[in-house]
Amino acid sequence: MIFAFECYPYNSPGSTIAAQRPYQFAKHLAEFGWYTIVLCADHKSRRSAKRVCEQQILNIIDQHFEKDKVNKSFSIIPLPTLASADLIDRLWLRYTVSTSLGTSLPSDSIWGALIRKTCTIIKLFRGDHSQSWQPITKMAISRVLNHTRVNLCMACHGPDASLYLAKWTGGKYKIPWLVDFRDPILQPQRTEVRFFYRLFLKYVLLRNSSFLVNVTPVWAEFDKADFNKPVFCITNGYDETEFNVSHPSNPVMKILALGNISYPSNEQMFFEALERLKSCTDNNSWEFVYRGNLHETFEMMATKAGVSEYCNIGPSVPRNIALNLMCQADVLVLFSMDVTKNSDPYLSKGYYPGKIFEFMACKKAVLCIPGDHGQLDNLIIETGIGRSCGTVDDIVNFVQGVKKGNYDPDFEEIKKYSRKNGARRLAQ
């Protein structure tokens, strides 16, 4: 049984790889003899319930088990959440601003920020913004156990509600449980807070967990040292069935970038390279396509570089359209974290952006800018999927090389990162 506040196809718009991960585990674990039940929060009915209606929750579980009798491989059950869990949760929400992507930001007012921070500390022992999902999910868990025996529970971190639910389930029903981290749980905290938060996690929240999973080798080593638990690395990976890959002979080379950029990168260098490409290639021989939240910034950068006529820039698009754009492109641009601009030890060896694995599935050349001098660069070298470029000359030479057919990925190495292989590791 997997607890995942965000799970495809019921996730909020701002959650992508985090929502795909539990869905893909459930889908592929079936091939290794596991029947998986995912309990998640339905984005369309979040904070819709004024009170817990036990019979409604029981009916939802019963209907899903009745419907999935034939399937017998996996079941994803979306649940509503309460308008608020308690007074502290209500106060926290009152001074929180929701974004269009479903994420939350602190209030701009000084008093509001102070109240929210105080509530956040109290909620450390209750759950974060997903706390209102817990009472309803506990009812669902009890009903699930009326239908079937559960051998193992997995908490998908991000947000925290799943950790509290797995701990509660493990204690109440004596079921072993594990935590799947999509990132280092301590990294978002300020340095001075990490020591105390690590003690809380180690001796309270994670104490009875059986083992942990993280998505990069370095982060797995950090978790092992921080929490003194067995830790396994299972990367995010890709699902080949999602991709209808084509290799069109485009008269115009398509260079594609998607999504937001989470960490310091070097977008300016990229547009300087496009300016150079304009001067050293035939007119209309290439096109840069971008879809994402930085579209306004990129439009200004393209104008400043004098390459607007070569650019097709727009806002974010649904996932199915994004995947189609990837499959039609010639060069896929990945803006990686520039570790030279980051002193955080948890990020000192870089990280794997989720897009790198979907780029693998497209079997197209990946242009990584500027490279992280760590895990990501090693992954690109290992698979031969592309190149990390730290200068304008490197970018221009790589793009021109791809146009001439100088691209030779190692498809056997790439296959190691399929989500089926990730599920195999978890099953083992």
Walkthrough of the structure:
This protein is 42% helix and 15% strand. The chain is an alpha/beta fold. The strands form 3 sheets. Strands 3-2-1-6-7-8-9 form a 7-stranded parallel sheet, with helices on both faces. It has a 6-stranded parallel sheet with strand order 12-11-10-13-14-15, sandwiched between helices. Strands 4-5 form a two-stranded antiparallel sheet. Helix 2 (54-67) packs across helix 5 (134-147) and helix 3 runs antiparallel to helix 4 (110-123).
Strand order of the largest sheet: 3-2-1-6-7-8-9
Q: Judging from the principal axes of the Cα atoms, what is the shape?
A: globular
- Which class of secondary structure composition applies to the elements? alpha/beta
Query: Share of helix among residues?
Result: 40-55%
Query: How would you state the average pLDDT, rounded?
Result: 87
**Beta strand count:** 15
Please, how many helices?
Answer: 16
Computed Rg: 23 Å
Note the main sheet: 7 strands, parallel
Show unreliable segments: none
Q: Distance N terminus to C terminus?
A: 16 Å
